Amino acid sequence: MSEDLMLKKAEELKKKGNDQLKKKDYDKAIDFYTQAIEIKPTAVFYSNRAQANIKKENFGLALNDANDAIKLNPQYLKGYYRRAVAYSGMIEYKNSLKDIKHVLSKAPNDKNAKKLEKNLEKMIRQIRFEQAIQVEEDRSILDQLDFANMLDEKNDSSNRLPELDIHITKEAKRQKVSVDMTFDYIEKMVELFKDGKTLPKKHAYAIVSATAELFRNEKALVELSLPGDENAKKNCRSATAKKITVCGDTHGQFYDVLNIFGKFGKVSPEHTYLFNGDFVDRGSWSCEVAFLLYSLKLLYPDNLFIDRGNHETDDMNQVYGFQSEVKAKYTDRLFRCFSESFNCLPYSTLIGHQYLVMHGGLFSSDDVTLDDIRNIDRFKHRQPPKEGLEMELLWTDPQPAEGRSPSKRGIGLQFGPDVTKKFCEKNDLKMIIRSHEVRIGGYEIEHEGKLATVFSAPHYCDSETNLGAVMNVTFGSDLKYHEEFDTFEAVPHPDIPPMAYCQDRLGF
């Protein structure tokens, strides 16, 4: 094929990719751009593929494409802009700002670059301010709450809710809060939320503080079992339940969370639920989801469990909406209380000594054991570190190829079926259960049946076509654990779009 014909064919493929990008079919767009690159690599083709990867939040792949675009044409400003957006998605704001300032030095009137520069500088100032506050505070924000002088608002919310008994005990510098939660309170709270109302602030602070205390007393690796399991250790929980239901990401989709309980059964002493992280951000009812799960934890402490996800962290909450949502509906101080409660969340759950559940996935080393997870000191850092077991439990993803490779996200890594097999054999496990990624069918079993991804936010962000799914674990008369997956569709919600509280998307 002549040079002209090759370029013409590549341009046709690029046009098809552009059409798919407009239709928001990013996988097809990436495929067409890749075909164009294989025929005739250009800075434009790499930049376009970077944009499609940004839309899929594959920021690591987008960064690679942007770098290739810049190498091919150092004068191509879109390459620098795409790289800046990829850096911002990876929470590398200083690198992002450096690229944006380069763009503006060549094109000072570029509106998108000026907007991104403004938002990045705002984000960097906010982070510096919050870091300064953290340095000044040597005490827990929860320990500083003064419930005695905190008045309930005399509003419609107060009148519609039952009394909430709040108990305070003080031990040295610690303040311990407990709440006598009732099923009646939760029912009325749900109806309040459906009417677009918020909790009285004193109730909100008490629920977060009391739930954080429960999480604080749990291990980094929570261990659950079901009746009849003779191998259950003394520290196993959920001993009265007949079933454990594992839910993946719910991302502030409050009405879909209500549907989960309506479709698969309520939390009770006979039915345990485990929510596997990412219950906030993106969806515009993250406060409501958090308060519902926290209240259920207070009512059924041995039958409602939550693993930490990568979105139960400050840097993600600043970008994807939860921090702004809490400020809009309540106060910035309440967000700081939520943040501290997230720091108390366990990192992983072991069910029946057979199913290891974590939000992200496996590790950069084959030497990791369950004891390593048990021994994580999650109170050592205010936020999860950017490397090590905690980061990998929150961020890593499976891949079909053997071995390990860099993450498409730009954070963490990807691990293959051989890694999963070795880990299961080393730790005597039947299966790894994780979430963290959309699956069109709601769930997917991979790695020769040893790994399952469960995602519980159907019609994700009102844009994906995916189902939601849960995994039910039971213990049979054959004295064995069994898993079963159920799917469900999205239900209608009020006319508030996802990301309604994401003020600054930082270009992506």
UniProtKB/TrEMBL annotation:
GO cellular component, one term: cytoplasm
Primary location class: nucleus
Cofactor requirements of the protein: Mg(2+); Mn(2+)
Active site (UniProt): H311 (proton donor/acceptor)
The entry's keywords: Hydrolase, Manganese, Metal-binding, Nucleus, Protein phosphatase, Repeat, TPR repeat
Enzyme Commission number(s) of this protein: 3.1.3.16
Catalytic activity: O-phospho-L-seryl-[protein] + H2O = L-seryl-[protein] + phosphate; O-phospho-L-threonyl-[protein] + H2O = L-threonyl-[protein] + phosphate
TPR repeat segments: 10-43
Subcellular location: Nucleus
Molecular function (Gene Ontology), one example: protein serine/threonine phosphatase activity
Occurrences of domain Serine/threonine specific protein phosphatases (ranges): 199-492
Family per record: Belongs to the PPP phosphatase family. PP-5 (PP-T) subfamily.
Protein name, UniProt field: Serine/threonine-protein phosphatase T
Organism: Dekkera bruxellensis
Gene: PPT1
